[in-house]
Fold these 3 entries.
Entry 1:
Amino acid sequence: MQSVKTSPQTYTRVAGVIFLISMIGGFFGELYIPSSIIVSGDADATAKNIVTSNFLFRLGFAAYLVEAVGDIALSLVMYILLRPVRKDLALLAAFFGLVSTSVFAVSELFYFGSSIFLGEAQYLKSFSPSQLNTLSMLSLRMYGLGAGIFMVFYGIATGLRGYLIYRSGFFPRVLGVLLMLAGGGFIARNFVLVLAPAYASNLFLAPMLLAGVSMTAWFLVKGVDIPKWEAKAATAA
């Protein structure tokens, strides 16, 4: 197997592919499909959508699983690419990335679990259909809340990676700036959602879209400056 010290470009391409897959999975699993199923404030309509579009509902969870697998792999790949800059911070970013994925996985359990209340199990017969619909909606509400109030972990991981990219010399500094802004947006939205939820706009997340697209395009098309990466790795060693 070729050493990472002589093939950073391979890891960069892999990171680009993972970024792309994770963005697609995240779009369908966290945005498009849930918004197509969940009707805000209407438990009965939401329950009807889950039952009548059950495959689409499950597809949303499957898309999230693809994203989660990608995020876990990305924690390792980005650590390998960025450890020549500062190994301790690269490792810390990997830890925060893994924690953010784990916490969001718990939130996704509430998303998938909402369908249990709408099943045909005998133990559910003691509840009325309206009560079951409400319990299902409550589970979805917990999913949304959990996904929002723990964004700080993902924000810190993103910000640290942005800082390391900015300091690296083998990636454009503008990518690092975009990632730091994206991380700051996640952290800011997290605390606004906790302290002043009425102002928790999704506009806080806009920098991540720009950063994600830019990172994916650069990693796939241009890649890493190999001589500078190798020089940095030699200095770190």
Entry 2:
Amino acid sequence: MRLRGRNLIMYSILFIAMGSIYYILELLWRGRSHWTMFLLAGLCGSLVGLINEHLLTHDMPLVKQILIGEAIVLPLEFITGVIVNIILGWNVWDYSNLPLNIMGQFSVLFAFVFAPVILVGIFIDDIIRWRWFNEDKPRYTWFNK
């Protein structure tokens, strides 16, 4: 995929928007965050936003988009956790006290927490693309018709 000027601007705005929104949500939720969470959220939000653009259509039900989003976000969270928390030792998060965790960097419980965050990311991505970049007006269904 080649980035043209317009696309570079759009993806940069989407990256910054997604990173900023998640960073603020984490500040409200935990009372703190870390700059790596801004980068991870910007990447995850941008990749989730590409679901409709490259993989599928706007006709895809939201439930399916969220599940694909989970398949993007959760592995990236684990990989980032291994790098940031274990290799670099920055201790940004630790899920080892939670059940169903892997190396303290991933917890199945957070898949449920991330689902509404992914949904908000889908809406924000679609609204920014529609309002600022004249893409198709978003339309949604929860399940297949």
Entry 3:
Amino acid sequence: MPGSAPVDPTGLVSALARRYDLPDRGTVQLVSLLRLLLSDPFAPTAVRDPLKALNDHLADALVALELQPIRAASSIADLGTGPGIPGLPLAIALPSAYVWLVESSARRCAFLRRAVAACGVDNAVVVHSRAESWRAGRCRLDVVTARALGPLAVVEEYAAPLLRIGGLLAVWRGRRDPDSERSGARAAVELGLDLAEPKPVQPYEGARHRHLQLALKVKETPAGFPRREGLARKRPLGEQPAPARSRDQRSDRGRR
């Protein structure tokens, strides 16, 4: 609003950092990231309001720190990371973890490299690759994260081959979708995952319908997954086949 006092990013981020007991260096790095997201004309986000950026990017990412397996992780990959969310805030919050920011867009990767350098995040590396084509991470990761990447079953197919046994997939979700969850549960069985009940989270005051969908890798993912580029989206796992029509139904269709 005209005449309103300017928003102080440092004060906003400091409160968030205290919530998760982050060190001073982490607070400074998060402030740098927030300012870059707001000021860089090539930042892959339409959010330019400081408070909204803090809530929808930083707070939404850091809410995963409520999960002990994520706090304890030593290796994390954020698939389809876009502007680096949630991967970059998690890398800042967890300096002892190694974080891969996996992104298929060259332009977004260029921004991510600037962000990693500007924020001094030594434990994050940008990977220019489609999620299903990144072979270097196979069977080695403690945690895979994804936000706004695609349907649950598709994300599971991307992530399962990357996780070690006992590794965790964490998917940021909004309002619960029973059909998506049922498809995800069927896909999880095929991929060696055990899909948990979605965990409600509140990354900031007033946030509604926010969930983290978790899946634990309980056995090896069969060979052949992920399928070649594009197939996970074109033919998602876990979809219910259309019910077969009876002979009478087929005959009726022919008479119309």
